[in-house]
Structure formats: C-alpha cells, structure tokens
TrEMBL record:
Subcellular location, record wording: Membrane
Principal subcellular localization: membrane
Keyword Transmembrane: yes
Lineage, broadest ranks: Bacteria, Bacillati, Actinomycetota, Actinomycetes, Pseudonocardiales
Keywords annotated in UniProt: Membrane, Transmembrane, Transmembrane helix
Membrane-spanning parts: 39-62, 68-90, 118-137
Pfam families on file: RDD
Designated name of the protein: RDD family protein
Keyword Transmembrane attributed: yes
Positions in coiled-coil regions: none
RDD domain location: 39-126
Signal peptide positions on this chain: none
Membrane topology, as annotated: Multi-pass membrane protein
Amino acid sequence: MPDRRVGRQPDVEDASYGLIVVQRWNVREPRERTARWRIAVAVDILLHSFVTFIVFGSYLVGHPDPPLWGVLLALPGSYLAVSFVHRVFLQWWWRATLGKLLLGVVLVRSDTRERPPLRRLAGVWLLSLVLTFAQLLDGL
C-alpha cells in the first residue's frame, strides 16, 4: 500500500501515471531524464503557441469581422486542438513530441519500456488540462 501522507511526494511511477521519459537511444536505461523533459515541455509550449497563432490568424483571415465570442472561443480552442494533436497523436506515433525529439528523449511505459497506449496519452493530456485550470482558478 503506497504511503499517502500529506507533504510526501509520490514516486516517479505514481506521479507520471506509469509513463517516464528516458534517453531516446537507450530506452532500457533506468534513469529518468527529468531535466531534458522540462526543457522539452517548454519547447513544446512555445511550439503550441506558435502554431496556435497561425491557426488563429487563418481564422481571422477567413472571418474578417468576427464576433467577440468567436474570438474568445477560437483562440483557446485552437490551442487545445494543437496541443491535443501534438501531445496525443504525434507523441503516440513517434513516442515523443517535437521538443522531446530535439532533446533526445522519448516517453515510454515505466513497466515494459514500450510505446504508451493512445488512451493513456489522452488521459494524461486531459488530466494536465484539468490540473492547469484548477491552478488558474486557485489563483483567483
């Protein structure tokens, strides 16, 4: 039974939902590459933002005088769509996002070191979305 006392950090497997980031060329290596993973996440966020503004810009070109609610829905909707495709489908296909590929790490299952299932990637993406909104609302 895992220890769930207040203030205790969960181990790597609990915190990552059975997924870990390891070196791309040696997925059997026991050490997780957390520093590279953090930099890769920053690269991915910048990439998501850049592609979002391209998608959002194409929306504005197609709708030269959009209503305010259209703008308020299109910008976060574009970001969520870009993020989902990149972090779920492309990460499932390549075992890494573009940021992880640039830094030489991949996402694997912690138990078998195989490709993570699509459903787990989608669940982790959805959970990260919920936690992000919870943090934003907690700051209000």
